[in-house]
Amino acid sequence: MLDSGDVPLEPLPSVVTAKPRKRQTLLTLPFAPFPPTRTRDRGPVFPVGPKTQAFRNSFYPRVADAQWNDWRWQLKSRITSYQDLGSMLALSEAEQAAANCGAPLPLAITPYYLSLFHDQGPDNGVRRSIVPTGFERLVNPGEAEDPLGEDHHSPVPGLVHRYPDRVLFLTTDYCAAYCRYCTRSRRVGKKACSSGNRKHWDAAIDYIARTPSVRDVLLSGGDPLTMSDAALDYLLGRIRAIPHVEVMRIGTKAPMVLPQRITPQLTRVLRRYHPLMISVHCTHPGELSPESAEAFKRLADAGIPLGSQTVLLKGINDDVPTLKSLMHGLLKNRVRPYYLYHCDPVQGTGHFRTSVAKGVEMIEGLRGHTSGYAIPTFVVDAPGGGGKIPVNPDYIVGQDGDDLVLRNFEKKQFRTHDPLTAPACGMGDK
């Protein structure tokens, strides 16, 4: 169950242009919880995939379509206890260990997302990425609570300024579901953290406004799309009003774990603020469903460029066929694969982390074997705040005289004339 300290946020009535409503005691706070479930936001009928329908028939037979397809109902109905989870899944020994001893990061899974793997075993990739295990209590050498040094690069609460011309705006610490390898597990889902409050938002916006070098603002968290339309409208409007901000981006996993959030009302809000881009966190081809396809369609039809961000995870997506299937599925849904991340050394994530060489192997397995649009950039986010460092296969064999020797995806060698010293033009100096 949600409580008032762990909910999406809605701004004060003063920032909403609709007809004023009767003031409630709850709204004396800077922000109020998301509004009660209602069905008036109906647009085109939202699809329900066969896996999800089978799950509903078994565990939610009395929930009407209007409720199931309401994103607020999905959030209020998240599975947050191991007892409830165990009634829907046969927990493995490792999962039971988390139930017995707890995990550093809270358990939260939307009913929709659980429907994607409810009939799969504990080795299923989607299940492994979201169901806690006892391995999360193991801390390995080199791991840290804040391995990327985000807190060190935070000039005001909730804002990270690591690169010269762009900032990361942590709008909320709330997610619809908590990925077990989360870079910000130190703060998301924790009541002690509160990025999403009016005071922090205003301080962050003020910093952006007085820092003219900032041309790009990435809204992340937590997940910004767990907030109400009015809250997003307020934030995007305030940032868009800053003259030197050229581009805004939103980082989200909503199309994967909460596709019902992508309502016609939301897309009408988002399309007001172009150029606006969305980076979607995608992990496994098992996340691609009729529901996620509809969410992607609504966003793309609103003119929003979509990119994907995928974390390379051991035993989940670290083989070429799985990764290629994910990238092809994304492209078919008008999502351009953007980044493939080496798993950050967050405490308790060692069981997910591959070697960096494995990431290079994945890119080499894609390059030449599929279209270039389907190949993300593999990056290591340098510990301590060094930023993203691209790591690629080496296709240069060496220099032989005036020839550069290259190899292609088939490991065949080719020569191209590439003298180390530029040839004289033959006309002399004038």
UniProtKB/TrEMBL annotation:
Matching PROSITE patterns: RADICAL_SAM (PS51918)
Cofactor(s), names only, from the UniProt record: [4Fe-4S] cluster; pyridoxal 5'-phosphate
Keyword field contains Disulfide bond: no
Swiss-Prot/TrEMBL catalytic activity: L-lysine = (3S)-3,6-diaminohexanoate
Tree of life domain: Bacteria
SUPFAM superfamilies on file: Radical SAM enzymes
Keywords: 4Fe-4S, Iron, Iron-sulfur, Isomerase, Metal-binding, Pyridoxal phosphate, S-adenosyl-L-methionine
Protein residues bound to [4Fe-4S] cluster: 175, 179, 182
Protein name as it appears in the record: L-lysine 2,3-aminomutase
